[in-house]
Amino acid sequence: RNLLDRDTFSKSDPICVLYTQAIGNKEWREFGRTEVIDNTLNPDFVRKFIMDYFFEERENLRFDFYDVDSKSPNLSKHDFLGQMFCTLGEIVGSQGSRLEKSIVGIPGKKCGTVIVTAEELGCCRDSVLMQFCANKLDKKDFFGKSDPFLVFHRSNEDGSFTICHKTEVVKNTLNPVWQAFKISVRALCNGDYDRTIKVEVYDWDRDGSHDFIGEFTTSYRELSRGQSQFNVYEVINPKKKGKKKKYVNSGTVTLLSFLIETEVSFLDYIKGGTQINFTVAIDFTASNGNPLQPTSLHYMNPYQLNAYGMALRAVGEIIQDYDSDKMFPALGFGARLPPDGRVSHEFALNGNPQNPYCHGIDGVMEAYYRSLKSVQLYGPTNFAPVINHVARYAASVKDGSQYFVLLIITDGVISDMAQTKESIVNASKLPMSIIIVGVGPAEFDAMEELDGDVVRISSRGRFAERDIVQFVPFRDYIDRSGNHVLSMARLAKDVLAEIPEQFLSYMRVRGIKPSPAPPPYTPPVHVLQTQI
């Protein structure tokens, strides 16, 4: 909207060029170009860019705008109209996945704005729940009746078949009713509703030499008609059919029910306005070492971030795209506070217990450095108070409109293990996840136990409802070559990768559906423009 006008006799002929940035060397690479739209300062570009999206990665984008003056593909031959920088997370994290931002890059000029919308490709996220029964199947066993089961195959482009589902075996009957089963539409027919689905009927034998009773073919489109006369299939055994004149069939299989379920994704919730609230808790115990000494984990090095600062930035810069007000509570634990030296396990880094919020990740960093100068590192290392702090907020909004992520950065050995386990088990019922980053050389055995990936965490005989803790040791990510950018991208990727699934598991258990996204933006009606 309102692009600069660079043409003397008519309006600009704009094109948009998208660049993405490599994580390591920060080099911008051209990703693609839109079409050119003639003679307008308010173009609505049609060409879409299809990109891979990962919640746990930061994808920097740059949109450059040019006024095209000739047929040359070389951009330096055209007039530059400005550019806009953002991240992919910023676009999908905006209300309705629609981001409007100013175009910059030409000093002293207003360059207009750009509106970017993102849409998740619903590459067929449906699954179906279906149930079948059969009647009068051929008897294959000498002593009893048959023990039938079904095998489903989807057809491939080259005409071959791939097995995609087997039902259970129903023993000793020629009229089995199989249990309902759920399968993704992708697995069943690759999302192609008219592709052949072949179903084989077998009689189960203990030695694995199952006897073939017969087969039939159908398609997703046919099955989707549900229970009807169209979904009763004759089971045919081609060998028998060839041999016997009077052969009719080897029984029938009937579809009893067919229910389509659309799997909702993490982005459906984000698009519907669910906010992710990010809270940081930092370990101020004495075992970190004196912040004035270079050996300290809290060393305030004027030239580079310490481990705490790096972990905070790595995780925070990605999560902040999903939090519209960019205000983050930042807490500390394990220190003696001025003026009276009382020990606190839940203090505001900005010194304001009524309002512990800091503006943006920069605000959190600033509060962290300020409190390092004013508090005295002490102990013990108690996690339960900060977990309970966030849990109190999470308990007050269980409607799916908000989800809480607590990042605890610690140098390790935990003092209140029993209380922390109790807090985590209680928190597992709430809309929250906990990320623990361990810095320094300590043994982190206790953290691995909290992580709960191997054994689900429990307290006093109660098990956590879902796995909500993700632990990583910072030292596993230190890049030998000193390239912190890469190592922090890897750290963020590993700690954040589980969040969307933990988020969805909460919503599923509670039966919370995403809110509908706000209506898409419709541009004002312009005079029709020609497009090349």
TrEMBL record:
Residues 277-478 form the VWFA domain. The lineage of its organism: Eukaryota, Metazoa, Chordata, Craniata, Vertebrata. The gene is Cpne8. Belongs to the copine family. This is CPNE8 protein. Residues 1-101, 110-233 form the C2 domain. It comes from Quiscalus mexicanus. GO terms for cellular component: plasma membrane. GO terms for biological process: cellular response to calcium ion. GO terms for molecular function: calcium-dependent phospholipid binding; metal ion binding. Keywords: Calcium, Metal-binding, Repeat. It holds the Pfam family Copine.
